[in-house]
Amino acid sequence: MAEQKAPRATTNRSTTPRSDSFKDYISSQWADRDEVMPAAREEASFAAARRERLSALHRGRRLVVPAGRAKVRSNDCDYPFRAHSAFAHLTGWGSDTVPGSVLVLEPVGDGHEATLYFRASAGRDSDEFYADPEIGEFWTGPRPSLAQVGADLGLATRGLAELDEVVTSSDASTLVLREADPELAARVEAVVAAAADAEGLQEAVETGQDDPATASSSVAVDVLARDASELRLVKDAWEVAQMRRAVTVTGRGFSDVIADFDDIVAHPRGERLVEGTFNRRARADGNTVGYDTIAAAGDHACVLHWTRNDGPVADGDLILIDAGIELDSLYTADITRTLPVSGRFTDVQRLVYEAVLEAADAAFAIVRPGIAFREIHAAAMQVIAERTAEWGFLPVSAAESLEPDHQYHRRYMVHGTSHHLGMDVHDCAAARRDLYLDGVLEPGMVFTIEPGLYFQPDDLTVPEEFRGIGVRIEDDIVVTADGAENLSVGIPRTVAEVEAWIARP
Question: Which of 194, 270, 294, 503 has its CB 3.0 to 4.6 Å from that of 264, i.e. a possible disulfide?
Fold first, then answer.
């Protein structure tokens, strides 16, 4: 399926010559390029194993997994392209993915043959390479050849122009990862619908039929997104190694911020400097940030997803920094540290901080294979309820507050304690509830533990000295054969460690 491109609104200012003589001239006298064949990247064998697991779930069905397309930010400017996580997970292609690429698993016998379709480099005898500002190599850089990508990823490759005849044929029932490329999904489904019983297809779509074995049509809704998410619930050895590296470079980003504290405090929008300093490390040691950095100083720390980052960072305040670096493999860390800007916690700040740390440690202490994922949150909430009751903030005892119909302590922590982590900061989001929140922990699962306490500046249920204090401590955890490992324990987290980390002459 040749990619359909909407015309850019730039033709009225184009000055690229279009004459035959210019085309002949710019297409000639180029040195030959040596086509170096890369060795297969380390992840290639792991990606192949993941494809086998997906194949086993959908025997006899064609599976179409797009990388997605570039998205317009404004006029002819696109957002930086990032491949859909399921595509990257199943191919091993990360930050270097060519936009518009599509992985197809074609049913063959009792399995599938995998082919990667993408737009390869254009010849110098075409006008694409110099005249197309969206994809031409004069504008965006050279693309790899089919052979190079095939060697790199250990996959069969074909040109994107050949995709149409494959994915729109009706000789096999087809599942499309719809969220990755809705336009492609709509075209594929239209062809399949034409060959299916119209009434049965409509019923399957309207009821959200997610079981292709019982669907009366050959298109199932969102099954592929679900299964691709569930494949990532347990990380393989290569993925865990990537998570370790992402945590390590994220720790460097936090240290960079602390080293810049003097300049940050001096600037009227110091939060922006925090964001910029961290982003510099993310671009130097990774692909980019894994999500918008939260740099929340003072009252802003009580806004759970504060990403405006336009306020000052003042001595005496706490600053809550929630940030993670995404590697070129697209795996990201997700770490939060709450730091006293002056280098020392006040008595009240320390009291709140140590309660949150106690909740985090209580949650970590129970992690082991075989427990339910939801138990982690319950362990943290036990501490949060006990401390807020002890301080007199609750209208009932901690035990009563923990009852499902009360939950008064949740006023001060409305978010959950844990989420899966990997290629997406909230990884495996399309997985079924019984495998996620109600799921049982297995070795190789990676997730956060991130309790917090947030006392809004206008909250009359707490004493004035608590108002405007927000604290979160977030670590990245991997389940091991007999327990768990805190991947980010090396990033200072106790009061003494944090104060020593920030100490300045």
Answer: 270
